[in-house]
């Protein structure tokens, strides 16, 4: 009896995790390419905190935009300028999904480089 219960719970968790998995796949944009610049910055520097501000500003402004948004943070020499652009036929939900995803992935692909660009089918992000 208890093994039947256990089995039911297992099946329930399995279906829950597969639906979460499907959601992740749908939200994931189609990666095309990226280029990291050869200039690097130091981790935990002023540059990095400005970059974090710019990336979160891009991600949080993607839903109200017309598919384009730019942001800056800080003062020279640690000033960071960033922008994103979405494909014009996409709605703001899809646009934001892509920008949110890109803003995380770009820092994984180019962890300490200044000046990066990443392209997806749906959007590009540049700083
Ligand atoms: C970075 O350096 C490599 C080799 O030094 C060079 O081939 C490449 O073109 C440089 N990239 C940029 C974006 O300047
Ligand atoms: C954008 O997202 C914010 C926070 O998630 C929300 O409050 C706002 O209504 C959204 N704007 C649009 C145009 O969807
Ligand atoms: C964004 O771009 C526009 C037009 O290119 C420019 O006028 C504006 O100053 C930029 N905004 C920021 C925050 O850099
Ligand atoms: C936006 O487009 C996606 C993909 O075509 C679609 O699944 C989604 O329902 C659309 N969302 C809105 C709010 O129109």
Automatic annotation (TrEMBL):
Domain named Gnk2-homologous: residues: 29-127
Signal peptide: 1-22
Gene3D superfamilies linked to this entry: Gnk2 domain, C-X8-C-X2-C motif (3.30.430.20)
CDD domains per the UniProt record, alphabetical: Gnk2-like
Keyword check for Translocase: no
Record-linked Pfam families: Stress-antifung (PF01657)
UniProt keyword annotations, A-Z: Repeat, Signal
Domain of life: Eukaryota
Keyword Signal assigned: yes
TM region(s), chain numbering: none
Name listed for the protein in its UniProt record: Gnk2-homologous domain-containing protein
Organism encoding this protein: Acer saccharum
């Amino acid at each position: 009896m208890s093994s039947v219960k256990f089995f039911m719970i297992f099946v329930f968790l399995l279906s829950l995790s597969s639906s979460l998995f499907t959601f992740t796949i749908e939200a994931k944009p189609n990666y095309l390419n990226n280029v990291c610049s050869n200039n690097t910055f130091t981790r935990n520097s002023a540059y990095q905190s400005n970059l974090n501000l710019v990336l979160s500003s891009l991600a949080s402004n993607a839903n109200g935009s017309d598919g384009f948004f730019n942001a800056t943070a800080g003062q020279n020499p640690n000033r960071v300028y960033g922008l994103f652009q979405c494909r014009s036929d996409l709605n703001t939900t899809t646009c934001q999904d892509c920008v949110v995803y890109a803003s995380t992935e770009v820092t994984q692909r180019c962890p300490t480089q200044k000046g990066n660009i990443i392209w997806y089918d749906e959007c590009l992000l540049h700083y």
